[in-house]
Amino acid sequence: MAKRTLSPGALRRLCTEESRMKNDCKGCGFEASPSIVGGEKDYTQWDVYITGPGDSLYENCILHAILIFDYNYPLVPPKMKFVTEMFHPNIFKDGNVCISILHMASDDPTSYEKPDENWTPVQNIRTVVLSVISMLNEPNINSPANVDASKLFKNAYEEYCEKVKELMKAQKK
User: SUPFAM superfamilies of this UniProt entry (predicted)?
Assistant: First the structure.
């Protein structure tokens, strides 16, 4: 497989974001940095570690995800995928995250997404991860990526909570 690359502008932007996050994201509930591949930083893929918010189903859990950046970032949004196994209405079974901020604005009149919720180049890693943290606690059940999780959340919330808690507990071992 060919190694992914970034445009010079994308690399510059990601280096700036890395530098800013060291100061701006203390206490934000997550850490993010370029993955280390072969002893070197790989700016095309970042490791994200989210500390489960208190009073949530993810309390005291560390959730690992990756952000994958396109050659044309920030003109194109990153993709986000959880490495930690998740059961959530807006996370596909393979871990890929479905949230408006990771989608380009669409001209589709049937789309439920508002253009101001979609990706724009002013968004950054911090805004994406904070949006995902918010989504963990407040799923959008009207646009599910995982229909089973959405149905359980909507129709049997206590059972949904138990399933998520059991999954998180099993991963701590």
Answer: UBC-like
99 class by beta-carbon count within 10 Å (0-12 exposed, 13-18 middle, 19+ buried): buried
How far from 91 is each of 14, 34, 75, 83, CA to CA, in Å?
25, 22, 23, 11
Distance CA 1, CA 145 (A): 28
Q: 25 catalytic, yes or no?
A: no
Domain ranges of the chain: 8-172
Backbone angles phi, psi at 171, to 5 degrees: -80, -15
Q: Does domain 8-172 have CATH number 1.10.10.60?
A: no
Whole-model pTM: value is 0.92
How far is it, in rounded angstroms, from Cα 92 to Cα 173? 23
- Count of H-run helices and E-run strands, the chain: 4, 4
Which single residue is written with the structure tokens 């859990």? Answer: 61
Q: What is the per-residue pLDDT across 131-148, written as a single tens digit (0 to 9) for each?
A: 999 999 999 998 899 999
Residue from 15, 25, 98, 161 carrying the catalytic annotation:
98
> Cα–chain-centroid distance for residue 41?
20
